[in-house]
UniProtKB/TrEMBL annotation, chain A:
It comes from Phytohabitans aurantiacus. Transmembrane segments: none annotated. Keywords: 3Fe-4S, Electron transport, Iron, Iron-sulfur, Metal-binding, Transport. SUPFAM superfamilies: 4Fe-4S ferredoxins (SSF54862). It comes from the Bacteria. The keyword Electron transport applies. Its cofactor is [3Fe-4S] cluster. Gene3D superfamilies: 3.30.70.20. This is Ferredoxin. It holds the Pfam family Fer4_15.
UniProtKB/TrEMBL annotation, chain B:
Belongs to the cytochrome P450 family. InterPro entries: Cyt_P450, Cyt_P450_B, Cyt_P450_CS, Cyt_P450_sf. This is Cytochrome P450. Pfam families: p450. It comes from the Bacteria. SUPFAM superfamilies: Cytochrome P450 (SSF48264). The lineage of its organism: Bacteria, Bacillati, Actinomycetota, Actinomycetes, Micromonosporales. Keywords: Heme, Iron, Metal-binding, Monooxygenase, Oxidoreductase.
Length: 70, 399
């Protein structure tokens, strides 16, 4: 059994650092105000490392990642 | 904190010029260190990464340093706070959100070609000028100010006048107190005129956008707040970026094997820029001054007493519990969540812009000048005494 991840991002906490968008552009995007949006809440495994790194690096911890059995 | 030792003077000296201060190494032996600021006042420096990162998001620390009896950085604290402006949540976040719109990745990437163009023009002028050239004067200062001028919608014909006023006000050049004051007054009235001009004839620049938002948004900025934000962008975004461009090139040129690696593979440049930012070559923690509204306990049990002035240490970028071999410049570091742009709700609004300017500068200079080198022995690179930003006053280069 492989494990997937589920990503959530709280635009209300986002301070528009753009860090996650540069780190994992396949998963994170920004709305017109620059606040985080999700392109893919269940990204394939090749993006997992970048997503974890984006979550660790978010200045306001606006990104949550959890494991999800698939 | 009951500390019997005398406070250490801050910022720590870089001596010799390209060597990390010895103080950076043992700083984290204690979680809280009393330091003396250039004004003579003292502050508590929070030294460990874990505490620093947590405290950047702790609402018990106020950024309203001009409203509380906070220690002063310099005898004249003008650059660092305005009692008329509330810099704490919740109000501040709405204001900040109006400004940060202009700094999303998409908006900034649209500017990247312009940054390349300006860099190219500056290098053309360097080619045509005398050698050796001073990289600070020829490249590092003009690049960020021209980009800010563009963003603010300063007409190109005003660029030189504008820069002279900003340089004078920021004391980039050595000037008497009266001349600095004259530049400050001149800059403030220039900004008034600029805002009025954009009100009369809006364009697609940041000031026009702030004005536009103002007419539609119930949370509108007052004229005073609008002025304040424009000033903040200048103060926070110009000399900082210029200093980092100049000092990081000096450090790179002093490590030719890294320069060689970058020339072989320019896709390494963003990682190198990030690592040079982690080294925080030109700065100090003066930007992260806070006032403690309550007692705050650190992870080891030490307490920041209510009423004290606190700085969140950027030297925590050298915390070996977080960064492996922290004193080694490793351009391939992947887990590089340094504190150079701060953290939490005041995270540098211009960080992505600064990164882009640094990337273009580094790649542009290395591509254009295959033999770029320091034109003086590294011991002769001088940092101005008593400056807030410990950038080199000049970085002479030849090629
Ligand atoms: C290498 C260059 C730069 C460095 C090292 C730097 C560093 C910082 C730091 C540490 C803070 C946080 C201050 C605090 O916590 O109180 C900050 C805030 C800020 N920076 Fe930068 N900065 C740089 C470039 C820029 C640029 C290019 C701009 C814009 C043009 C900019 C605009 C701002 C603004 C507006 C703030 C205030 C944000 C807030 O209070 O919410 N900075 N910067
Ligand atoms: S890293 Fe965090 S603060 Fe930065 S854009 Fe992404 S969600 Fe927003």
């Amino acid at each position: 059994m492989s494990t997937g991840i589920r990503v959530t991002a709280d635009a209300g906490r986002c301070v528009v650092s753009s860090l996650c968008v540069y780190r994992a552009p396949a998963v994170f995007d920004q709305d017109d105000d620059g606040h985080v949006t999700l392109l893919d809440p269940r990204p394939p495994v090749e993006h997992h490392e970048a997503v974890w790194r984006a979550a660790r690096g978010c200045p306001t911890r606006a990104i949550q990642v959890e494991f999800e059995p698939s | 904190m009951s500390s019997s030792s005398t406070p250490v003077s801050y910022p720590f000296a870089w001596d010799p010029p390209l060597a990390v201060p010895d103080r950076w190494r043992d700083l984290r032996d204690r979680s809280l260190v009393e330091v003396q600021l250039p004004s003579g006042d003292t502050a508590l420096l929070v030294t460990r990464y874990r505490d620093v990162r947590a405290l950047f998001s702790d609402r018990r620390l106020s950024r309203n340093t001009a409203r509380y009896p906070t220690s002063r950085i310099s005898p004249n604290n003008d650059l660092f706070g305005d009692p008329e402006i509330d810099s704490d949540p919740p109000r501040y976040l709405d204001e900040r959100a109006i400004v940060t719109r202009a700094f999303s990745a998409r908006r900034l990437e649209a500017l990247r070609p312009l940054v390349w163009q300006v860099a190219g023009e500056l290098m053309d002028a360097m080619d045509a000028g005398p050698r050796p050239a001073d990289l600070m004067e020829a490249f590092a200062f003009p690049l960020p100010i021209r980009i800010i001028c563009h963003m603010l919608g300063v007409p190109p014909g005003d660029n030189d006048r504008f820069r002279a006023l900003v340089d004078g006000f920021m004391s980039v050049t050595k000037m008497s107190a009266e001349d600095v004051e004259r530049c400050r007054a001149g800059l403030w009235s220039y900004l008034d005129e600029l805002i009025e001009a954009h009100r009369a004839a809006p364009g697609d620049d940041l000031i026009s956008e702030l004005i536009r938002v103002n007419t539609t948004d119930p949370n509108a900025l007052s004229d005073y707040q609008l002025q304040h934000w424009v000033r903040t962008l200048l103060i926070a975004g110009y000399v900082t970026t210029a200093s980092q461009i100049g000092t990081s090139m000096a450090v790179l040129l002093n490590q030719p094997h890294i320069v060689e690696e970058l020339r072989q593979d320019f896709s390494l440049v963003p990682g190198a820029v990030e690592e040079l930012l982690r080294f925080q070559l030109m700065g100090a923690s003066l930007g992260s001054l806070r006032y403690a509204l309550a007692d705050i306990e650190l992870s080891d049990g030490a307490v920041v007493p209510a009423g004290s002035t606190v700085m969140l240490s950027v030297e925590s970028n050298m915390d070996d519990t977080v960064f492996e071999n922290p004193f080694e410049l490793d351009i391939r570091r992947t887990e590089n969540h340094h504190m150079t742009f701060g953290s939490g709700i005041h995270y540098c609004a211009g960080a992505a812009l600064a990164r882009m300017e640094l990337q273009v500068s580094t790649e542009g200079l290395l591509r254009r000048y295959p033999k770029l080198r320091l034109a003086v022995p590294k011991e002769e690179l001088a940092r101005p005494a008593g400056g807030f930003l410990a950038a080199f006053s000049a970085v002479p280069v030849d090629w």
